[in-house]
Amino acid sequence: MRAKLPMLTGYRVLDITQFVAGPTCTRILAELGAEVIKVELAPNGDRGRASGDKPRDAKFKAGSQSTFFFQHNHSKKSLAVDIKQARGRELVRAIIPKVDVLVENFAPGVMTRAGLGYDELSAIHPGLIMCSISLAGQSGPLSRQPGFDYMGAAYAGITSLIGEADRGPAQFTTAIGDHATGVTAAMSIGFALLHRERTGEGQYIECSLVDTYFNMHEVNIPKSSLRGPSFAPQRAGSLHPDGGPTGIFRYRGEEFIAITVLPYQWNQMVKAMNMPELADDPRFNTARARRFSQPRRGRRGAGSGARALRAGSHPARGHGSSAFAPARNRAPGA
Question: Domains in the chain, start-ordered, CATH in brackets?
Answer without folding.
Answer: 12-214 (3.40.50.10540), 246-328 (3.30.1540)
